[in-house]
Amino acid sequence: MENLTLARAVPTLVPMDYQKDITLEPGKRGGKPCIRGLRITVYDVLEYLASGMTEAEILRDFPDLTTEDIKACLAFTAAPACGAPAGDFEGS
């Protein structure tokens, strides 16, 4: 039998630009990073996800949020692991 090698496609990761979605305002929520100026912090969303809430549940409970907002929270938090400091964006 012939020895076949199957190559698996590896997706190219494109960093998400979360700068328009994550805002820092000193007088809002203690200066923590918020989503689009709302009073919902990145850490709130991460805690909901960590507690087992699904994206659909979060979006249902917080209708001002979008799927892109949740992705922006994850990208913002992952930035240091990818070599970029969290919060290192224009407007901070």
Protein model, in words:
The chain is built from three helices and two strands; from the N terminus they run ββααα. With 92 residues, it is mainly alpha-helical. The protein has a domain at 22-82: Arc Repressor Mutant, subunit A, CATH 1.10.10.10. A two-stranded antiparallel ribbon has the order 1-2. Helix 1 crosses helix 3. It is globular and about 65 Å long. The model has no long low-confidence stretch (mean pLDDT 83).
Give the gist of this structure.
By secondary structure, the protein is mainly α. It has three helices and two strands. A two-stranded antiparallel sheet has the order 1-2.
> Multimeric state of these chains?
single chain
CATH class of one domain, named Mainly Alpha
Strand arrangement in the largest pleated sheet: 1-2
CATH superfamily of one domain: Winged helix-like DNA-binding domain superfamily/Winged helix DNA-binding domain
Give a count of the beta strands, DSSP E runs of length 2 or more: 2
Q: What is the CATH architecture term of one domain?
A: Orthogonal Bundle
SSE run:
EEHHH
For the CA atoms, what is the radius of gyration?
17 Å
Strand content: under 5%
In whole angstroms, how far apart are the ends? 61 Å
As a percent range, the share of helical residues equals 25-40%
Count of separate DSSP helical elements: 3
